[in-house]
Amino acid sequence: MITGKELFISRISHGLGRAAPPDTPTRLVYPHQMQRRYQAHAAKRELRDIFIANARAVGIDVRECSERDLAVALVEIVRKTGGPVVLADDPLLTGDVARCLVEAFTECHIWDAGAGREENMALAEKAKVGVARAEMALAESATTLLSCHGGNGRSITLLPENSVIVIRAETILPRLTQAMDWLHQQKTLPASVNFVSGPSSTADIELVRVQGVHGPLELVYIIVE
Amino acid sequence: MSPRVSFFATCLADTVFPHIAADAVRLLEKLGCRVTFNPRQTCCGQPLANAGFHAEAAAAIRLQLEVLLTDPTDYVVCPSGSCVLQIKEYPKFFKNRPDLQDKARQLGDKTYELTDFIVNVLGRTVPGARLDGRAAYHPSCHLTRLLGVTKPPLALLEQVAGLELVDFKGQDKCCGFGGTFAVKLGALSSAMAVEKVENIRAAGAHYLIGADAGCLMNLQGIIRRKRYPITVLHIAQVLMAD
Amino acid sequence: MSIKTSPLPLKERLRKELANPVMRTAIANAQDLLNAKRDAAFAELGDFAKWRETAGAIRSHVLENLDFYLSRFAERAAAAGAHVYFAGDAAAATAYGLQILRDKKAAKAVKSKSMVTEEIGLNRLLEEAGLEVVETDLGEYLLQIDDLDKPSHIVVPALHKDRERFREVLAAKKGYTGDSVPENLTRFVRQLIRKDFLEADVGITGCNFAVAETGTVTLVTNEGNGRFVTTAPKIQLVFMGMERLVPTFAELDIIFSVLARSAVGAKLTSYMSLITGPRGPQDADGPEELHIIIVDNGRSRVLASEFREVLRCIRCGTCMLECPAYRHISGHGYGTLYPGPLGLALVPVLAGYEDYGEITKICSLCGACSQVCPVEVPLYEFIFEHRRIIAEEQRLGAGENFLMGLYGAVIGNSKLYGMATRLARFSALAPRAGPLAQWTAARELPAIPKTRFRDWFAARGKKGNLP
Ligand code: SF4
To answer: Of the candidates C371, C386, C412, which has its C-beta nearest B60's C-beta?
Structure first.
């Protein structure tokens, strides 16, 4: 539904010296393409090293393991933070990982989109740890891209105090440019896509950095082979 | 052939700081220029233009245009980046007069700030200058940011025997002069100047050196009021000191 | 609030701010720290000139095609399930918002920081209509509970306060009993607002940039409140200034890359949320309804004017951080929602010279802002041009007009100039009133010598030296 468009747009067209919007926009010519040059020829391993270094520099706890050891890695994390845990409904997490977590701790919930809003959010609100998988990661800014829909509810990486984001090693790309390319190629976009580049933080009081405002207090990245 | 230079003194140096203008002339002559001064020149009109009074500035702009272009010289040289900026912007004031705009462009092309002229046109340094002590250099905004003359003053000061240049906090910040800004919002302007002066003092400078008499007058006003033992000098004076 | 944030006249505002040492220290420290971080971030990125040229070209392209991109955005957003409203002015925008909230019988709204909602005075109207509105950005929240204090910067709104003030306010208004350590203050607020987040029926946000191609709106925050506001409540209201668009994700890349670096010296903010329509059929959380209200409120006037390019602005706030005048008076000295160089360039044309022409005086024309703006808004040139228009329209006082006219007449004529400068040295005898008083309040006047340069030059053939 669109309301009040005609008059509004025509005022703009007039301001631009025409009666109505053109059928096509003028051509946008990029004077430079510097964004595409960043680590354009870096090997996967290099990108991964850059990603890890940049993530650690902003206070993100980064771990690496094989896919098989992911369950162990998560158990180790949750042993420190305590449960309950909420997991995204993702093949990487729901099999072995979920089983091991349930064995080690009593409460481990998988996001159940069918169960509705209140129930899922209540579980996420109670959880100490939320675990989700990233579509991809970006080396330059230590960013992960979360496609928040279906089994990967928005609340999983937002409500619990500890956020764990699992990254497949081969999905680490140079920078935001590549993530935007990927979004551009999607036929339909999920209602919510989130880029995470660090733990929730603020500098509103005397510009002193405080980690953990509204979102998670701690952020862990696990890179799996 | 020695370059022929028409000297634009600026109204401020002409009336308030004649020794600065005189030293600038001596300096140019020392470097082999033939200097003329057309006494019909007045003021570049910048104080008016910056306050918005373009119509009121029009007569002065035309006058300088005529006077400075009449002299059969190769260059116009001026010991103030701010006034040079104004002269270089003269074409803007003649949007509806292509003939005058052309002349204004001609004038702009041959006009240089003193240190820029010495370093980049003459390709010279100044031999024999000597001043003993620590000096803070204030890079004036119009000279550095808007004309892009950042290195020449420093290159020349580095050659001065006995002079130690010290960096200070907030060195590239505006001194708060801004022409009529200093009298319209005097309290804010002087707050800016005071911070600058305190930083210069904290750096332990004996001298404050600049290339623009406007900024120097402003900062000197604070220094004298506070009775700080800092001597304020225009770079032309420093380069002529021995 | 609206664009005007102070009832005091200009000189009184300045006097008040100049007499506030807590604020002045805080702002000076913030400038020094954030500017160094910004410079370091761009140095690491490299090619600053290319990035800003590209970012500027993108923004300029959007303005040139704004009617096209707005239409496209509205269509695509609607196709994704959003309701899109076009509001010509503040009244229309708030009316849309109120109507939606009434229809939904909403009682409580959580907000993430948004300049345009401040501009249209949304909070006050919502509260008058009986809604509880909670600002969730930490700085905004503390301003809100500190009897609606005004932001002093567009990115870090409570920059003018120190931790002690934060503690006092939380103690007085919310029963806080802890110390003034920022971490403890923050934790306390986290607990308070968390409840609000989960209770609220409406989330109100601004929009950093909307993507025309996909109908996506975006929010960037470090605290995570932007994510919260768009996750927990069932209804989401987005207010966006009409120029805040990019054509596609490719351009969003460039703009986000310069925005975070300019604003806070970070590569990116901790969270960037891209929202396309309300939650999907498979989604359990997120808003069921998404309403996007696009606001003109003077922007089409700016677009049609010679100041169009000021609409390139991406609200990074770095021109304020660079400004030597802002340094001493903070955003409060301007008395306008948009302060600093951006405010000087934008507000007089957005909201009229009548009320806001005067702020263009708060500038020494040092040019520092133009050099750092990541989208190359010609701030210096615009301020200069506003002043020309203001003088030409005779908006300055009769006294100033007279003095400037007199000065112009003197310097426009060689003979008059000769006479006047010969008399200048007697100015020392003039009473310390008017403009001179402004100068001499803090500064000494230089003594004017008897011999002018021109006299020396004329005489030097004979004598050769200054007396
Ligand atoms: S004018 Fe430029 S520097 Fe100032 S806030 Fe806008 S984008 Fe940033």
So the answer is: C412
CB C426 within 8 A of CB C405: no
- Pairing mode of beta strands B130-138, B161-166: parallel
List, for residues B141-200, the tens digit of each pLDDT value: 999 999 999 999 999 999 999 999 999 999 999 999 988 899 899 999 999 999 999 999
- Predicted confidence (pLDDT) per residue in C92-135, tens digit: 999 999 999 999 999 999 999 899 999 999 999 999 999 999 99
Of A25, A154, A197, the CB nearest to C286: A154
Residue C183 neighbours by CB under 8 Å, 6+ apart:
A210
Nearest CA to ligand 1 atom 3: C373
Residues of chain B numbered 114-133 and touching chain C (CB < 8 Å): none
Q: Tens of pLDDT along A111-125?
A: 998 888 889 999 999
- Per-residue confidence (pLDDT) for residue C462, from 0 to 100: 61
Predicted confidence (pLDDT) per residue in A11-67, tens digit: 999 999 999 999 999 999 999 999 999 999 999 999 999 999 999 999 999 999 999
Please give the biggest Cα pair distance in chain B: 53
C413 vs B42: CB contact, 8 Å cut-off?
Answer: yes
- Answer yes or no: are the C-beta atoms of B63 and B42 closer than 8 Å: yes
Please provide residue C268's backbone torsions phi and psi, each rounded to the nearest 5 degrees: -145, 165
Question: Which of C360, C413, C443 is most worth mutating to test chain B (most B CB atoms within 10 A of its CB)?
Answer: C443
Q: B230 and chain C: CB distance < 8 Å anywhere? A: no
What angle separates helix C10-18 from helix C21-45, to the nearest 10 degrees?
90
Kindly indicate the confidence band of residue A160, based on its pLDDT and cuts at 50, 70 and 90. very high
- Chain C neighbors of B51, CB-CB under 8 A: 387, 391, 400, 404
Query: What is the reported pTM?
Result: 0.95
What SS3 state is found at A146?
strand
Q: Does C30 touch chain A (CB under 8 A)?
A: yes
Shortest CA distance to C270 belongs to which of B19, A197, B180?
Answer: A197
Query: Token digits for A219?
Result: 């952020």
Ligand 1 centroid to Cα of residue C379, in Å, is 9
Is residue B47 reached through a cis peptide bond, with omega within 30 degrees of 0 on the bond before it? no
**What are the residue boundaries of the structural domains of chain B, listed by start?**
4-120, 128-239
Confidence of residue C460 (pLDDT cuts 50, 70, 90): confident
CATH number attached to the domain at C10-301: 3.40.50.10420
- Asked if residues C261 and C372 have their Cβ atoms less than 8 Å apart, the reply is no
Domains of chain A and CATH, by start: 41-199+217-224 (3.40.50.10420)
Report the atom number in ligand 1 closest to the C-alpha of C345: 1
Q: Which positions in chain C touch B59 (Cβ < 8 Å)?
A: 408-409, 411-413
| pLDDT at B3 (0 to 100) | 94
Identify the CATH assignment for B128-239 out of 1.20.120.80, 3.40.190.10, 3.40.50.300, 3.40.50.1860.
Answer: 3.40.50.1860
For residue C380, how far is its CA from the centre of ligand 1 (angstroms)? 12
Chains B and A touch (3+ CB pairs under 8 A): no
> What is the number of the ligand 1 atom nearest to the C-alpha of C372?
3
Does the pLDDT value for residue A224 go beyond 50? yes
Give the domain ranges of chain C. 10-301, 398-462
Substitution candidate for ligand 1 out of C39, C314, C370, C380 with most atoms within 8 A of CB: C314
Q: Residue C195: count other Cβ atoms within 10 Å of its Cβ.
A: 10
A contact chains, 3+ CB pairs < 8 A: C
